[in-house]
C-alpha cells in the first residue's frame, strides 16, 4: 500500500502543477493475482473502477498473456474495412500493389512494432492481401504467382511487397537491440536488465522462463549475433562469461565448467592497464580462451551494429529474416522513370508465364484452342507471343523476336543478350499491354 499512496501523491502533485485531474469514472485499476488480497483497499484508496485485461491503448491490446487471434480481430477488421472502402473503384493490379504497400502494410507495421504476432494472424493477413491483389473487391480472380515470389524485391523478380513475418521479426529485433545496447533511457530495458538478466545476459538467459512474448523475442537473438560487434575497452560494461565479446561467443556456453572464476564478473577483472591479465588457467579445455583474445581499445566498451554508422538498421534486420535471393537481369524492365506500372505488371506476368492463357489450370480450360488463329493449337504463352498468325499481333511477334528467345523463352531468359534502352523498353511494355487486352 505504501507504493499506492506514493502513486496517489504523484497524481495530486501532477494535478496541482498542470491543472489536469484524473476522472475516477473513466479510470480503471487492473489487479494481478498477487495483489488480490488487498483488492478492496486498492480500489478504495484510488477510487478507480476495477478493470480486466485485455484493454486497449492507442488501438493496441494491453495483455500479459499470449496474444491470441481474438485479440487481433481489430487489426483484421481495419484491413477489411479499408478494402471494403475501395469497392466500386476500378483498380488495376498495379494500383492494388501500391495500396498494399502504402496503406494496408502500415496497419501490420503498427502492430508488428509492439507484439510478436501469432502465426494464425499472419496467415489471415496474408490471405486478405493475396485476395485483394488478385481479386480486388470482387469474388472473381485467381492467384497467378505464389505469395512467396510476390514478396521478393523487384530486383529479385517480385513485386517488392514486404513479408509480414520478416517485418515482425525485424521490428522485434529493435527491442532486443535496445537491451543489448543497454539503453538505460528505457524503463522497460532497465526492468529487463534488473529482473530478467540479473545473473546473465540477453545472450545466455534461458528461453523457457518469462512471458510468452519474452520467450518468443529471445528466439530471435541468435541470428542477430553475427551482425553485432563488441569492441573491448575498459571492460566495465561487458560480462566476462555471458557477453559475446570473444571470437568464440559467450564463454559460459562454450566452457560451462570453465576455470574457477566468478560467473557474474565483468570483463574488467581480466584487464589491467589496457592489457589482458588472465590468471593462470590449468584446465586444458579452457586454455583456448587466451589463444584468440581480441584487441583492447582505449576508452569505454562499444557495442555497435555492423553498419556504416554503427546504429541498428531495420532494413538490414529484415534481410536477416528474409535473406536476399539472386537478382534477375530483367528487373530493369520494371524499374525506371519511363515505366508505366499498369503495363509493367502485365510484362511481369508475361515474363513469369502467368498470364491467363487457356492452358492455365485455374481457368479449367486445359488444352483450350487459340481463338485468334486457325491453326487449331493450344493457347499457350509461347504460341501467343511467338507463333500465332493472327494479323493484329504480327508486328509484335516480329519485333519481339528480336528481343525474346523464341518458343522456349523462360522467366529467366527474356532478352537475347541485351537490355533495351528506356524508350524501347517503354514501347515494349505498352505494346504488350495493348496486345494482351486486344
Features:
flat, single chain, mainly alpha, two-stranded parallel ribbon, 438 residues, 8 strands, 4 domains
- What are the segments in which pLDDT stays under 50 over at least 5 consecutive residues? 400-420
Could you say how many structural domains there are in total?
Answer: 4
Radius of gyration: 30 Å
Net shape? flat
Q: What is the terminal-to-terminal distance? A: 78 Å
Organism: Sesamum radiatum
Protein name: Reverse transcriptase zinc-binding domain-containing protein
Pfam family, one: zf-RVT
InterPro entries: RVT-Znf
Can you characterise this structure?
By secondary structure, the protein is mostly helical. The chain folds into four domains: 51 residues, no CATH class; 93 residues, no CATH class; 153 residues, no CATH class; 107 residues, no CATH class. Helices cover 38% and strands 5% of the residues. The relative contact order is 0.07. α3 packs antiparallel against α4 and α13 packs across α16. A hairpin with a 2-residue loop joins β3 and β4.
Outline the secondary-structure elements.
Blueprint: H1 2-18, E1 28-30, H2 39-46, E2 49-51, E3 55-57, E4 60-62, H3 73-84, H4 93-112, H5 119-135, H6 147-150, H7 164-180, H8 187-196, H9 212-218, H10 221-224, E5 228-231, H11 251-254, E6 271-272, E7 275-276, E8 302-305, H12 314-321, H13 341-351, H14 381-386, H15 394-400, H16 422-436
Parallel strand pairs: 1-2
Antiparallel strand pairs: 3-4, 5-8, 6-7
